[in-house]
Design goal:
Elements: H1 2-25, E1 33-35, E2 50-56, E3 69-70, E4 79-81, E5 84-86, E6 91-94, E7 97-100, E8 103-105, E9 115-118, E10 120-122, E11 132-139, E12 146-154, E13 169-175, H2 179-185, E14 191-196, E15 204-212, E16 223-229, E17 234-238, E18 241-246, E19 256-264, E20 266-267, E21 270-271, E22 289-299
Parallel strand pairs: 1-15, 5-9
Antiparallel strand pairs: 2-22, 3-10, 4-5, 6-7, 7-22, 8-9, 10-19, 11-16, 11-22, 12-13, 12-19, 13-14, 14-15, 16-17, 17-18, 20-21
Length: 302
């Protein structure tokens, strides 16, 4: 057993060096490379002091309208989002999971323009919380040129500048723009990020972690991704193991809602090169963003 642990640590050491070099010379640098440690690592999430206050297990046959709504898309009209379009039809529930699909429509969808169609959903106006632990269990979509995300957002993100992140910060628990590394180098890398002070010239951002997932291929198997948000810091986890922590910009002290999204790189509805790699071609084979559950916890003392 000791010998096997030694071999695992040696392999992890060389993987860390290789991933660091990859980040230095890649067109979309990977900051702070972190390899998910082995299961015996002591920094394992403990939810003993937390209680479950909100969840969706996606056990029904349709999206629960009391828990989710389209994010910047609703009704029968598609909305431009980055290099594609969002329409709520592309978020479906069945077989115990939520599936957000990404598909190309040469003639457009329901009167929309030709392009890639996917979806974003959120709990804005339905559920929000200040502090707690938030987690998703999911399989990330295959495809260079697109990315899925589970994130938290305050109501005033775009209009509040000058107070750091204390009056609201975008918390990207997991984003998956690195499938192009999987294709070229068989590297499973995701990313966790923080943004505050809007999305203009004053925007501030930090990449907290770019974890390397040794086991449980995130594009083939379920993994859990979570963030513990408390009064002092944000702590990010994969499968209950800490991947990074930060208090960048000061801690958000306002309620935030949850989002699940899939975006195509580009602009004005036209696919283009982005941090997710080359533009998504019209004939690309992509797979769904498959979500088993989303859960939100609050501290027992809160």
């Amino acid at each position: 057993m000791a010998f096997n642990n030694l071999i695992t640590r040696i392999i992890s050491f060389f993987q860390a060096i290789w991933l660091f070099l990859l980040g230095l010379f890649s067109p979309a640098p990977l900051y702070k490379p972190v390899i998910i440690p082995p299961p015996e690592n002591p920094d394992v999430l403990n939810l003993e002091d937390y209680r479950l206050v909100w969840s969706d297990e996606f056990d029904g046959t349709a999206l629960n309208a009391s828990k989710w709504k389209g994010f910047r898309c609703s009704g029968e009209k598609a909305a431009v989002r980055q290099g594609g379009y969002w329409h709520t039809d592309f978020a479906s529930v069945g077989g115990g999971t939520l599936n957000i699909s990404t598909e190309y429509y040469a003639r457009g969808y329901k009167g929309g323009k030709p392009g890639w169609y996917s979806c974003g959903i959120c709990t804005d106006g339905l559920f929000e919380q200040t502090y707690g632990y938030f987690e998703v269990r999911c399989i990330l979509p295959k495809g260079s040129g697109l990315w899925a995300a589970f994130w938290l957002m305050p109501h005033n993100m775009s209009g509040s500048v000058g107070n750091g992140g204390t009056d609201g910060a975008e918390l990207d628990v997991v984003e998956s723009p690195n499938y192009h590394y999987k294709l070229s180098d068989n590297v499973n890398v995701v990313t966790s990020n923080i943004h505050y002070d809007g999305y203009g010239a004053e925007e501030q951002s930090e990449c907290v972690a770019t974890p390397f997932i040794n086991d449980n291929d995130p594009y083939e198997e379920f993994n859990t991704y979570g963030v513990e948000w408390n009064e002092n810091e944000y702590i990010f986890y994969i499968n209950g193991i800490e991947t990074g922590r930060s208090s960048f910009g000061g801690i958000s002290r306002v309620p935030e809602y949850l989002l699940l999204t899939v975006e195509v790189g580009g602009s004005n509805g036209r696919a283009g090169a982005s941090w997710a790699g080359k533009a998504l071609p019209k004939d690309a084979e992509t797979t769904d963003f498959v979500v088993d559950y989303v859960r939100a916890y609050s501290r027992n003392s809160a």
